[in-house]
Amino acid sequence: MSARRVVITGIGLVTPIGIGTDPFWKRLVDGVSGARRVTVFDPSFNDVQIAAEIPDFDPGQWLEYKDVRRFDRVGHLATAASDLALVDSGLDGLDRDEIATVISSGLGGAGTAMTTIRAQMVGKTVSPLFIPMVMANFSASTVAFRHRLGGPSYAPLSACASSADAVGQGYRMVREGHAAAAVVGGAEAPVTPAVLAGFTSMRALSKRNDDPQRAGRPFSADRDGFVLGEGAGILLLEPLDSARTRGAHIYAEVCGYGPVNDIHHVTAPRANGERAAKAMMLAMYQAGVGPAEVGYINAHGTGTQLSDPAETRAVHRAFGEYACTVPISSTKPMTGHMLGATGAVETAICALVLERGQLPPTINYTEPDSECDLDYVPNTARTTRVDVALSNSIAFGGHNVTLALRHVNDSED
Q1: Catalytic residue (one of 76, 255, 316, 337)
Q2: Is 337 part of the annotated catalytic residue set?
Q3: Domain count, the chain
Q4: Which domain holds residue 318?
């Protein structure tokens, strides 16, 4: 069987700046930040007291009461995002027994793990549901069960690149004929005391507690880390000919997947950007495009001291003379860094850039850094046509993933 072209026909987003594609997109291009003081617990014990929570999210809108109680919050978010994606796309004409489910989570049921440990320490009985609630593959199995998807089902685990790998693995399955379609993405609910304290100890988080919406400042000289976020992004991938036959809306084509490892350090990126550049070059090679054809990069762009210059050097290595002409933005100051869910949400952003012709800004960009010298679409969205976009994910453990997406014209064969 020859390789099939793979397109995105459904998007489901549950994020700190919006639930559903249109509300999310409006706030994204308007440069609205979802960062605020933590409300789900008292953060005063910690130096960092801000995060990007999802306000007013009611799992009871998506799940029966018994399942609200039996699922960790990560399962609530994955369920809602999958429902949105599949309502968006529809599954008419697709064989559910042949649809894969590839949904990741970097930390799994972090909230349940913490509350259970606390309960056990004071002598309470551990729930028999504890293990399934904290498993990293809980979201994948829950979505497969909910929508009766009988194809391969699993959860890639590659830290903050997890859901980018989920998209890439689902793309490969559909492209090579191992699945009729794939529901892919990630969910993460890490806003817990232990996770917040852990990232604080690593000096990865911004400490701008008094000004949370201006806390995340990727590529700016005064950056001091990212804002932790929660959320979920789920996509439906299917062959182009299938999408056209059933009249599905096509957002974009997934046309390249570049996964590599830094083989350098468990938390720090390779400073020269060599392996992150390799991921971009692999994705472009698979897509059959060169640097001059890429019109947008959604950067990993965490706003940490080491990562932003390393990613900038990676772009220079991969794009050469075109590096300073390709627009790049980091959307994490608005969504927060959703860890294992981020790659899928940012893939959706690239698909919407291709469809809608707007580039989201890198907000809070205030001071140029000599080590970060690219076009970061500072502070204000930009309107322009884009035919090819890349999404970068760079994760602890050395994981680097780049996904390439292409605009699909209705007249294309």
Answers
A1: 337
A2: yes
A3: 2
A4: 257-406
